[in-house]
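<amino_acid_chain>
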Amino acid sequence: MGGLPYPELSDFHPKGQTTQAYDLWNEERGAGNRAIIIVDKDGVVRFRETYVPGQLPDPNDIIAEVAKLNG
């Protein structure tokens, strides 16, 4: 995934800590639910959407949300 112009988050160690903090942890699966969360430069969550396996987000929706941050 090298070369992406934005940071990505991985939740390897300690397992589940970040997904639990964002209320995305799925205890039954022992893993986080799929989600896109956009956090602004001040650390405020501006967009949050969860997705079931097999469901893909609409890239245009995500681009529109990011564009809102740039005013």
In short: The radius of gyration is 13 Å. Strands lie at 25-26, 31-32, 34-39, 45-51. The chain has a mean pLDDT of 87.
